[in-house]
Structure formats: structure tokens, C-alpha cells
């Protein structure tokens, strides 16, 4: 009897070791990313079939202390940026004035969230205490109210603070003072109002500076908003390649990490007036060949692995293709990016609602169907 029991134990142990060895699929080193290939051909009149993606790894379980942040990130769902409005020097100067009806359209289309880019620094004093103009605060309040009454989540950020990017040290105090006022003003807002520290840190605002400023801003916000979800992204224009350099306060688990995605840039920004030498890119198409789809998979898998390792939820805060690309390519690319994000558990917000990248044509007062159906099939 004892001998039989021992033999059975050894058999069970051997089987366990064999199964453990088979399941130990550890990712290799970071993948090499191919250079984008421009394909010039005749526009396709019909919208091709949407690509599908297969996740490359089994998600790791979320720890209890991080569960609320992941739930709040998932709540953002599918969003759209209200671009070219409040981040203009003054609302309307870039052609967009926000209207109440826009929020109805956004809700009815099936979006969950509006990300509101805001140039707070254009509406605040240059000298201490850097007071934000009361009328401008009231305008932002109106936007928040329009979203909340329609059960839309709202993300408020600091956008186009160009002076901070160019001269970080002289503008640090003002940047922190802006967040102190914003946090105090919205301290009683519901959990569906999110703060995003800064859009696309770049230029002289290096990773070293940005890590310092971001952590100080988080501490200031926490004085009045202990549980508020704060969204923060890496440097170099919220690049996924800078995620490993992003330093966050380990004890603060109510943080969501964001990145932006516009690759291949020659496709998404062809003919963009603000991008130097982008005219030769006109006519660049995007096709759902394996190389193009593979690039998105590999890029997003890098973000997913970072998220799992650091137990931080992910929000894809911007992605979009400029209107000068053909509609069929824009549809394919937009769908591919949105689905790749969703299949890795990332919420997202498309750039943007009704301007050059727009999902809505405000002149025709109709949705840009190739983009809308790519975002919300």
C-alpha cells in the first residue's frame, strides 16, 4: 500500500512539473518596429472588412488595491475629444464653439466620455496668485454640466501650455497654481469628472522635469481630491516609448496612465498645415496587411506589458487621421487602433469631434460615417 502511494505521488509530481514547464511562455526582448511603408493607389469606394486582433497574452489578475483605478479607467470606455474649442487661445478662434446639441449627438452615437482640452494658461494671471478668470471657469462649468446631465464622463486637462514646454522652471509655480485652483473648484464633482495633468509634455519639458512636476501636481490635487482619478502620461508627446521613464508616486493607486498614438505619422498627418514638409505625404494610404496590423499589435503589446508589470490602467487619450487621407484608409486605420486598444483593456478617446480629424462634420451637420462606424461598429 505504502509503495503504491509513493508511486502515485511521484507520478502526480512529474505531471505537475511537465505542465508548469509547458505553460512558462515568457515574452522575449522588446520587438523591432518596421518603418511605415507608403502605398499609393486608387481610392477604394467601398469600406473593407474590419480587421480582428488576437491578444498575445493572458491578462494578469488585478490586485485589490488597484481594482478601483482599473474600474474607473474601464468606465471611460469609448470617448471623443472636444478639440479646437477651449484649447484655442480663445474659444472660436480655431472655428469651433461648443454647443449644447453636440453633447446630445455624442451621447446618442454611443460615446461614453468627452475629453476636454483646455488652455487654462491663456485665461489666468501672469503674476501670483495666477488667478483663473471667473468667466472662463463658468464656461468650463457649463461644459462639465452638459456632459454630466447626459451621463457622459468628463476629462479636464491642461492643454497647449506652450510656455511651460519652452521654459519649464519659470512656469512651474504657475502650472501648480492652476491645478490648485482647478482641484479646489471641482472638489465636490462626482467621480465621473477626471483630471489630466498635462497634454503631451515635450520640448524643454524633459522627462526629468516632467516627473518632478507631475508628482508635485498630484500631491497638490490630493489635498482636496483624495479619490479623484488623475490621468498622467509620459514625456515626448505622451509617447509609449517613454513609459519606462515615467515615475509615479507608488502609494497613489488612483492614477490612470495615458498615451497617444498617431503611427504611421506620414499617414495620419499627411498634408497637415502645422507639420513641416507633410505635403509630399499626400496620397499615403493605410492597408490592413499583416505588416501594418502587426505594428499596431506590437506597439500596443508593449503598453499592455508595462500596464501589467506596473499595475496601472491605460487610457489611449488621442488617436486619429487627418481629413486629407482617403476615407477608406482612415476607416481601416481608426478601426484597427480602436479594436486593438479595446482588446487589451484600454479605454480610448478619438481625436477629435468636429475639426480636421473630425468624426462629425459641423458644416454638413452629419456624422462622418467611415470614422463613426470604425469607432462604434
TrEMBL record:
Which residues belong to any copy of the Glycoside hydrolase family domain? Answer: 94-354
Q: Which GO terms describe its biological process?
A: glucan catabolic process
Listed GO MF terms: beta-glucosidase activity
Would the keyword Hydrolase turn up in this protein's UniProt record? yes
Q: Which residues form the signal peptide?
A: 1-23
One matching Pfam family is Cellulase
* Protein name, per record: Glycoside hydrolase family 5 protein
Species assigned in the record: Anaerolinea thermolimosa
